[in-house]
Design brief:
By secondary structure, this protein is of the alpha/beta class. The chain folds into two domains: 158 residues, Rossmann fold (3-Layer(aba) Sandwich), CATH 3.40.50; 79 residues. It has a six-stranded parallel sheet, sandwiched between helices. Helix 8 links the parallel strand 4 and strand 5. The protein is globular. The model has no long low-confidence stretch (mean pLDDT 95).
Length: 246
Amino acid sequence: MAKINTILFDCDNTLVLSEDLAFEGCADLINEISAAKNVALPKPFTGESLIVEFVGQNFRGMMVSLQQRYGFTMTDDELNDYVRREEDVVIAKLKEKLVPCPGVDDVLAKLEAEKKYKLAVVSSSALRRVKASIEKVGQDKYFGEDVYSAATSLPKPTSKPDPAIYLWAMEKMGKKAEECVAVEDSKSGTLSGTRAGIKVIGYVGPYKAEEREKMEKILTEAGAVVIMRDWSEFEEVMAKVESGSV
């Protein structure tokens, strides 16, 4: 069995509490697009209703899903323009209000001090947004250039649950799946890591208490080998993965 030497972290709601802020900005833009395209929404989207449906997907992925659902189309130029606008709106919100997930900074500092693992960020979100997020909370020092985005880094943009971004990150770092562990908070992210052959720790910390049990089940069904409820449990769950008991 290969020794685990690399930890791949999702960004949104795994390292930083960004999903609520991002989806808030995103909802405003999607409602604007719906009006421009004469889409009759049952009711306007809110940050909360978008999160329920699209957590773990990037804006491009959401727009593809919405076009299929409501039967409207966009040119590539239109879509790219909206993708840029969404980035700007969300980054402005993140720069103003973003905070790290509780307890993660202590874990990152300890991992950095131990120098046992290579650390990387593997996200669906645009690279500019991911970098703005980790810089805002001072986590960028842990990852160097190893920050990968399904929306930006790949030759053809995609979104989790497509495993492409995990495969790309491993190729760039010269790592095999059995040397890596991923930490993910969403179904799409967990599927992405699992489909790339990586063992995934499912993190449910940012979910409301009443949703956690449901999310534990969803992430387990998506392939997470172990569930982490709080970053204080990281060493314990990591030991289970490394021992091969999960």
